[in-house]
Design a protein that fits this description.
- 2 copies of one chain form a homodimer.
- The first copy, chain A, has 366 residues and is α+β, with helices and mostly antiparallel strands.
- Chain A has 3 domains: 2-114, DNA Polymerase III, Chain A, domain 2, CATH 3.10.150; 126-235, Roll (DNA Polymerase III, Chain A, domain 2); 248-361, DNA Polymerase III, subunit A, domain 2 (DNA Polymerase III, Chain A, domain 2, Roll), CATH 3.10.150.10.
- The first copy, chain A, is built from 6 helices and 26 strands.
- The first copy, chain A, has helices at 7-18, 71-80, 130-140, 197-206, 260-271, 321-330; strands at 2-6, 32-37, 42-47, 51-57, 60-63, 65-70, 85-90, 95-100, 103-108, 126-129, 155-160, 164-170, 174-181, 191-196, 213-218, 222-227, 230-235, 254-259, 281-286, 289-296, 300-307, 309-310, 315-319, 335-340, 347-351, 357-361.
- In chain A, strands 14-11-12-13-26-25-24-18-22 form a 9-stranded antiparallel sheet. Chain A has an 8-stranded antiparallel sheet with strand order 6-2-3-4-17-16-15-10. In chain A, strands 5-1-7-8-9 form a 5-stranded antiparallel sheet.
- In chain A, a hairpin with a 3-residue loop joins strand 11 (155-160) and strand 12.
- In chain A, helix 1 (7-18) packs antiparallel against helix 2 and helix 5 (260-271) runs antiparallel to helix 6.
- The longest helix of chain A is centred in the N-terminal third of the chain and has 12 residues, at 7-18.
- Chain A is elongated and about 80 Å long.
- The relative contact order of chain A is 0.11.
- Chain A binds chain B through residues 70, 73, 76-77, 79-82, 95-96, 102-108, 265-266, 268-270, 272-273, 298-306, and chain B through 70, 73, 76-77, 79-82, 95-96, 102-108, 265-266, 268-270, 272-273, 298-306.
- Strand 21 of chain A pairs antiparallel with strand 9 of chain B, so a sheet runs across the interface.
C-alpha cells in the first residue's frame, strides 16, 4: 500500500473517526483504524461494533493495500505533522511508514482480516436534507433516557411515512418530538427505527452542517447513513418504543409567550442556587408577568421577574429547570410559548406559532 | 453592609480568588470568600491557609460591614448576571441580598469572626518589575518537584541580593535557573525564600501582565506579594534548598544551536511515539545536522532531521523529551543553544547568547 495525501485531509479523516472507536480495549483490534487503498479511493474505517464510521479521503493511490493502526497513536502523530504532503506506505510485514517533510514514522499494524467488516449501502429508501436531519437529532437527543433498564428509551425514535419524518425521544420526565412534512420516502412502506444515543450523537458530529443530503437505509437491526464521503453503520435498538402520543397534552388552556433569551438567562441564573439534589423551580404567572424562583434550604433563594404575554388567571407550577433549559438551548426562535393546564398536568413548550417541534415536560410538585 | 458595584468588576474579583480556596471542605469556612466593605474600599478575601488572596475592587460603599459567602455559589451567581450594576447588601442576621436588574438572590453567610485573618503588608524590602517577576516564575515553575518526600524541592527558590534576583527550581532530573541583574533591594541584607508551587502558580495567574511593579515582603515563614489592588499571602517552605550551583556544568565543550520552533515541533512529533513508560529520545549530532529519534518496542519509531549549527565531532546523547519541551515552551528566543560534554554529563540549555536563563537536564542512558 502506498498513498500520497495532504496532512489536513488525513487529519480531517482520522480525527472524527478515532473518537468513535472502542477505548476500553476489550478487543485490541477495536482500538485500531483500518486504512484501505484501492484503485479508486483511500478510506479510513473505525468501529466499536455498535457504531462504525468509514470516510473516503482525497488521496493519490500509488499502490493498493490495507493495514490497521492504533487509532490514538495515528491521530497523535498526524496532529503534530506540518501542513504538507504525506507519503504513507504499508508493507507486507505490516509496518506502516509515514513520511512528511523531515519526519519519518514507522508503526507496526495489524492485518485487515482481523478487522470487523462494514455493511455496504444498497439502495437507500430515504433521502433527507442533511441539515434537516441534523436539526431533528439536535432537537431530540437531550431527552434520551440514560436509564439502562429502559432499553427502548436509550435512543431516538426515527419514523418516516409518506406524509412526514419525525424523531421522538423521552426519558419519562420529558419528551421531545420534531416533525417535518414532505414527500421523503422513495419506495413503498413506512419505516421506523430506534437509533441509539451514541449513533445519533456521532451522526450529529460527522455529518457536515453545509447544505447536502443524507441517504438513509434501515435494515432489520441496523441503520446506514451515507452522506458525501462518510458512511455510518449503526446497530439499532430492538423493541417497541412506547406510545408517546398519549402523553402530549391536547387540553392546555393557558398560554404564555416569553422571549427565549430572557427565559434562558433567567433560568440559568435561578438555577445557580440549586444544590446537589434537584430543587424545583417555581414558575408563577400573573397578567403580563412571569416570576421564576428557586429555594435551596441550605443556601438561599433566587428570584427573577420577566415580562410576558399572559392573559389568563394566576397560576403557579413547578419544574425541573434543567428540562426547560435543554429545550431552550436547542430551539431556534425569538419567542417561545408554554401551554399549560394545571399544576399537575404536563406542560407543552414550543417556538411561538410553530407546531413542528414540541417538548412536553412533566411538572414537579412544589 | 451595602455596596454598589458593576457586575464585571465583581466577577473579575470573585473569579480568580474562588480558584484559590479550599474545595475539600475540611473546614467549611475555607470554602467561603470574605467580603468586606469599609469606609474606603470593598475587598474580597479567600484562603486555603497555605495561600491567601485579597483583592480590592472598585465599588461604592453605602454602608460598612462584612460577610463570608460560599465561594463557588457566589462565583456561579455573579457569572450569570448581566453586565449591569449590582446592589449587594448583608444584614445583621447574615443574609446577603444580591440585586441586579430583574434578578434577586438571597444567600446565607457566615460571620467574619470565623474567617482566618490575613497579614497586612508592612514595608516591602523588594520592589520588582511585575512582568519580570512573572517571567521568572514562568521560567522555573515547571521544574518544581512533585515528590512529596523531597519537601524543599516542592517550591521555587527565590533569592535576592544587592547584585541580582534569581529563581531556581529542580526535581533532581532537571534544574531551571533565571537571574536578573539590578539594584533591587531597598534596604539591607540579602533575602531567600522557597515559594511553594501553588503560591507561585497563583501569583502567575493573579499578577497582571501589564507593566507595573510588585512589592515583595519576606518574613520568617511567609511571603507577601502586593501589586495594584491584589495582595497574596503565602506560607513559605521551611528548610534548606540544596546546593544547586554544583550541578551546573561549566566544562561543556560542544555547542549546538538550533531554531527553537523547529526543535519544539520535532520533539513534539517524535514524542507521539512514546508510550506510558518514558522512552528516551536520542539526539544524534553530526556536522550541521541534528537527528532526533525515539523507539517504542510496542509501537514503532519516529525520526526527525533538523539543520543546526554544529561544528564538533559526532555525538549521541539521550534525553527525556518532556524536559526539553518544558524548557522550549517557556524560553523566548528564536535560537536556542545546547551545551554538551559527553553522553553521561548534564546538558545545559539556553537561549542563544543569553546566560540569564539556564536549564540543566540530566541525560538518559540509551
Amino acid at each position: 500500500m502506498h498513498i500520497r495525501i495532504s496532512r489536513d485531509e488525513f487529519y480531517g479523516g482520522v480525527g472524527p473517526i478515532q473518537a468513535v472507536v472502542e477505548t476500553k480495549r476489550s478487543l485490541p483490534i477495536l482500538s485500531h483504524l483500518l486504512l484501505e487503498a484501492s484503485a479508486n479511493h483511500f478510506s479510513i474505517f473505525g468501529t466499536d461494533l455498535d457504531v462504525g464510521v468509514r470516510k473516503r479521503l482525497d488521496a493519490q493511490v500509488l499502490k493498493e493495500g490495507s493495514i490497521a493502526l492504533s487509532a490514538r497513536k495515528l491521530y497523535e502523530i498526524i496532529r503534530e505533522l506540518p501542513a504538507a504532503s504525506i507519503e504513507f506506505t504499508a508493507d507486507a510485514d505490516l509496518t506502516a511508514t509515514i513520511t512528511c517533510g523531515t519526519t519519518e514514522f514507522r508503526m507496526k499494524g495489524l492485518p485487515r482480516d482481523d478487522f470487523p467488516s462494514m455493511r455496504e449501502p444498497k439502495a437507500a429508501a430515504i433521502v433527507l436534507d442533511r441539515r434537516l436531519f441534523r436539526d431533528m437529532i439536535r432537537r431530540t437527543l437531550f431527552a434520551v433516557s440514560s436509564d439502562q433498564t429502559r432499553y427502548t428509551l436509550n435512543g431516538v425514535l426515527f419514523k418516516v411515512t409518506q406524509k412526514d419524518a419525525r424523531m421522538v425521544a423521552t426519558d419519562g420526565h420529558r419528551l421531545a418530538i420534531t416533525t417535518h412534512d414532505g414527500d421523503l420516502v422513495k419506495d413503498s412502506g413506512p419505516v421506523e427505527a430506534i437509533i441509539p444515543r451514541k449513533a445519533a450523537a456521532e451522526a450529529l458530529k460527522l455529518l457536515k452542517e453545509e447544505p447536502g443530503e443524507v441517504e438513509i437505509e434501515i435494515g432489520e437491526n441496523h441503520l446506514l447513513l451515507s452522506s458525501d464521503q462518510t458512511l455510518i453503520d449503526a446497530r439499532l435498538i430492538e423493541g417497541q418504543f412506547p406510545n408517546y402520543e398519549q402523553v402530549i397534552p391536547t387540553t392546555a388552556t393557558k398560554q404564555v409567550t416569553v422571549s427565549r433569551d430572557a427565559l434562558l438567562a433567567g433560568l440559568r441564573r435561578t438555577s445557580t442556587i440549586i444544590g446537589e439534589r434537584t430543587t424545583p423551580t417555581t414558575v408563577e404567572l400573573k397578567r403580563g408577568q412571569l416570576l421564576l424562583s428557586c429555594i435551596n434550604l441550605d443556601l438561599g433563594e433566587a428570584r427573577e421577574r420577566l415580562d410576558v404575554e399572559y392573559e389568563h388567571e394566576d397560576m403557579t407550577i413547578g419544574f425541573n429547570a434543567r428540562y426547560i433549559l435543554d429545550f431552550l438551548s436547542v430551539v431556534e426562535a425569538e419567542q417561545v410559548t408554554m401551554h399549560l393546564q394545571d399544576p399537575l398536568s404536563p406542560a407543552l413548550f414550543r417556538a411561538k406559532d410553530d407546531k413542528r417541534y414540541t417538548c412536553v415536560i412533566m411538572p414537579m410538585r412544589i
